[in-house]
Design a protein that fits this description.
Blueprint: E1 5-16, E2 25-26, E3 32-38, E4 44-50, E5 56-60, E6 65-66, E7 72-76, E8 83-87, E9 93-96, E10 104-105, E11 111-116, E12 129-135, E13 142-154, E14 160-165, E15 172-177, E16 183-190, E17 192-198, E18 204-210, E19 218-223, E20 229-232, E21 236-240, E22 246-251, E23 262-266, E24 271-275, E25 291-293, E26 299-303, E27 310-317
Antiparallel strand pairs: 1-27, 2-3, 3-4, 4-5, 6-7, 7-8, 8-9, 10-11, 11-12, 12-13, 13-14, 14-15, 15-16, 17-18, 18-19, 19-20, 21-22, 22-23, 23-24, 25-26, 26-27
Length: about 325
């Protein structure tokens, strides 16, 4: 399987020529980029920019963490470790208590999972956290794990993924946890784990291992059902293609005065398929940890490192036959 991207069709252009704050996202169909803005009243709201026309509109007078479908928005609750859920479809809002500051909705958007530290704890690296799972309305609340770490995401079948350590000197493990806290799988990942990223379907996860023994550090992909893993190119910022035909990657280093290059890694073995951008044609100057692929898998957007303007790279797929 290959990513199917035709490098000859790649184009780069600026779409927002003013400061874009971190946390921006794609709209559900990929036709817009949504970002945080602040009104004259000092209150945050969600502003959209159409990537083709540049037209702007107000999405809603709230900004927070959006669910995958963009139907739900999570903002800080009034109580400690609570969040407020805003339903864009029904305009209803409600508060979910004691779920942590950054809970993750599952792909079906029926449940939340978060990491909850107790008052006074030195979060998040020296004190274990309770991993909490609830329905989206806050019902059926359960503590399903306790770990020096937190929630990594959700597997394709709705099982919860928890990454962490049992102690400061222990290795980092990935646990697959059921609704009642039952442990289905547990895999040791390495000494310390960074940049864990679950694939769109919940089938795979990429992660980086650091501070381990010689030869054990690097970037990897793991199958979340079998535990099989693959070694990926190191020192790269990675993003999943929405259909999981592979990954796009940006090297964390570049030659002085030269643009960053985008590369394609093809599934299922995640081999280096080739370059997506040409440094002589595409002046890619980006914040290498702040870029995202569109839901349709035909574009990516990134912020520039100084002005924080938003640029978009677009491409087409190879035609079958």
């Amino acid at each position: 399987m290959a990513t199917g991207i035709d490098p000859a069709t790649v184009r780069l252009r600026e779409v927002v020529s003013r400061t874009v704050l971190p946390g921006w996202i794609w709209s559900p169909d990929g036709g817009e980029v949504w970002m945080l803005d602040v009104g004259e009243d000092g209150l945050p709201y969600t502003r959209a920019v159409n990537i083709e026309t540049g037209d702007e509109r107000v999405v809603m007078h709230v900004w927070g963490r959006f669910s995958r479908s963009r139907r739900y928005v999570l903002t800080a609750g009034q109580q400690r470790e609570a969040i407020r859920v805003h339903d864009r479809s029904t305009l209803a809002t409600w508060e979910v208590p004691r779920i942590g500051s950054r809970p993750l909705p599952n792909p079906a958007e029926t449940h939340l999972a978060g990491s909850l530290w107790h008052p006074g704890a030195q979060q998040p690296f020296t004190t274990p956290a309770d991993v909490v799972r609830t329905r989206l309305d806050g019902g059926d609340r359960r503590v399903v794990a306790r770990v020096l770490g937190g929630v990594a995401g959700w597997r394709a079948d709705g099982m919860l993924l928890v990454i962490g350590r049992d102690g400061l000197d222990a290795a980092t493990t990935l646990r697959v946890v059921g609704p009642l806290g039952e442990l289905e799988h547990e895999w040791t990942l390495g000494r310390r784990v960074r940049t864990a990223q679950v694939s769109p379907s919940g089938r795979h996860m990429t992660f980086a291992v650091v501070l381990d023994e010689r030869g054990r550090n690097g970037q990897f992909a793991i199958d979340l059902f079998s535990g099989r893993r693959w070694t990926l190119p190191s020192r790269m910022s990675l993003r999943w293609m929405p259909d999981e035909t592979g990954l796009l990657a940006v090297s964390l280093r570049r030659s002085p005065g030269r643009p960053f290059r985008l590369w394609r890694l093809a599934a299922p073995k995640f081999h280096l398929e080739g370059a997506l951008t040409d440094p002589d044609l595409h002046n890619v100057d980006m914040e290498v940890l702040d870029w995202r692929i569109s839901p349709a898998g035909t574009a990516l957007a990134f912020r520039t490192p100084r002005e924080a303007h938003l640029h978009v790279v677009t491409w087409e797929r190879f035609q079958a036959g």
